[in-house]
């Protein structure tokens, strides 16, 4: 079995390690990357989209980190799921620098009105020969959205 690639730690990991007095960063593996993707996709942007139009510095700041508010992430129809896939892909391309060539596809094999299934495929920036593929579920109920990865 080939060794799992390691990545540069995220900014959060580096800050936590620095506060703990660690001088050398710990290598971060694929499981940590998957956890970070889950965290990113479950974070609601404070000021999404049009709220930051005309403010390029603010648009590139943490104000926009995360996904659109749950109320705007409709997944009841196939067209809404396609739009959600595009939104998820934009979020990953923008805020997950360890990935490149990110593609998010809709998986409509078991459609329900309050759950969307998506497949994320990407290559790892620090190991271009390696790829990652995740199946995620987006549940929309009670005005909340929850993203979970299906790990094998």
From TrEMBL:
Residues 31-128 form the IraD/Gp25-like domain. This is Lysozyme-like protein. It holds the Pfam family GPW_gp25. It comes from the Bacteria.
């Amino acid at each position: 079995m080939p060794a799992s690639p390691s990545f540069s730690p995220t900014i959060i990991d580096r800050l936590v390690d620095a506060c703990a007095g660690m001088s050398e960063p710990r290598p971060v593996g694929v499981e940590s990357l998957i956890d970070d993707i889950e965290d990113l996709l479950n974070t609601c942007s404070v000021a999404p989209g049009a709220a930051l139009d005309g403010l390029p510095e603010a648009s590139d700041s943490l104000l926009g980190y995360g996904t659109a508010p749950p109320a705007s992430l409709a997944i009841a129809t196939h067209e809404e799921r396609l739009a959600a896939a595009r939104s998820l892909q934009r979020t990953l391309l923008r805020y997950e620098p360890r990935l490149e060539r990110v593609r998010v596809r809709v998986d409509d094999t078991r459609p329900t009105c309050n759950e969307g299934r998506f497949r994320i495929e990407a290559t790892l920036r620090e190991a271009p020969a390696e790829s990652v593929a995740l199946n995620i579920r987006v549940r929309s109920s009670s005005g909340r959205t929850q993203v979970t990865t299906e790990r094998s």
